[in-house]
């Protein structure tokens, strides 16, 4: 099979192109990658046609970066002296033309039926590769009876979807991109569409409706996950006609609070997809809700060794921003959660069960260990850590319940250290007693442990690192156990495009701005490179994008008591990921009570009450080793947010 010969590109000359287009029919599709200049050329052609006395209409078919109209919609407009005037629009409630190409094609087709006869330009989405690009191109040409496909392209690149273009049976007109056309960055596009959306909702009313009274269509998130609804675009539709479009403010107690333009109409059918204003204020595509199967393989430096005869069952692995969390020994093995802070080459461990499946290099990079309690399946792996850290390594901090210093010292004292000199592993151990840490320092081979000053803490905050915090609570397992909440800190990133537009140079003042905003001091005056000063809040609104922190909670070996439930629900409130034990089925509740463990049902109920996004259950009793699906089924009956395993262990 030979490749088709390349088609020559016509010069970028709107006047000449207008003449060529008029000779070949009245329906013209402008096709090309994002940032190639389709919307600019569409407007220029419409102006030329209008000057010649021709009425010109256009469908802006890119919901993510529309040439006119609202983001999250496709719009029909007519050219006037002042520009495009929207006469009709169809809400998609998504910015992703590739993923939702069938709804987009249906919406564009409905708009075409509303258009009067005459010259029609279609400004296509910038999806020009793969199956999505092929289906959008061929679908638009067939549904809209296109006469000419005007392909904007650069001389240095082959025409996109060449085979599809040649098979359409319509005139193909390849044209040089404008020399100054450039692909805008994601942040620039997001800021532009966000500004359009906020302007649209500047004068708005808020209404409250019962979810039970609505017909939800599109791809709405689960009703029992209120956070997933907040700030999503939504549209009221009637027989495939958009009546109004707005934004969900909140979902609470079965009621939807929705922001709509003043006096906008409503219907019983509500369209919801994935366009959403995130916590940083930008209108983007929401991350798909994460219940269901989790298919993710962490990189080699976060993945435990494979071992012969492994019988730990499903081995959960979760990816968060800049970190990977892996349940090293699976849901049946000794508890050991490895949290890899990837960009920092740093690891945290939650519990220290069997550690033989982790590499020695990981042990070198462990900075902190958080022990729930000192039963052997939770602390027995300390000997691996001890042996692996012989050498010139910094001190490793270990946190845990009362008695931890004695347990660690006892294991160290059971070994002869006569040959290591000053290369003995060093540990700083902190026992959690109410709201104070009782601490000691031990360096093997250098004598007894040394007591350190006690530290008072408040609200469970035992670690306040520049990158993250860790909080703890004490629970009951017929012995004190600790549960932990890790939370990465909010990050502030500078939009360099806006920085250049404002004519400002980077410098230490940006760090001052980030510190002020991080501290909530929006009124702080920031001195700029030109010696002028502006308020931090004003600068941040245009310059900074916010990446909110993520919360991971770890809890295991706790009795099902009201006190445990209340405390753990508060600690895990709105966590992104909750690693929680689910040791027994409800049929074995007597065994759960005798041993101080949670049943799968109790685990699911706690997670639902805490409004957690994802539940990763673990620490299953070995009695279910051949039938783990029963545990997951009982969990899913109590909680819709459980992550089901894939068969990859």
Keywords:
3'-tRNA processing endoribonuclease activity; CLP1_P; alpha/beta; 649 residues; 17 helices; seven-stranded mixed sheet; nine-stranded mixed sheet; Clp1/GlmU family protein
Describe it for me?
- By secondary structure, the protein is α/β, with parallel strands linked by helices.
- Helix content is 25%, strand content 31%.
- It contains 17 helices and 35 strands.
- The strands form 7 sheets. Strands 16-17-18-19-20-21-22-23-24 form a 9-stranded mixed β-sheet. A 7-stranded mixed β-sheet has the order 4-3-2-5-1-6-7.
- Strand 29 (525-527) and strand 30 form a beta hairpin.
- Helix 1 packs across helix 2, helix 12 (508-518) crosses helix 13 (536-543) and helix 14 (562-571) crosses helix 16 (600-610).
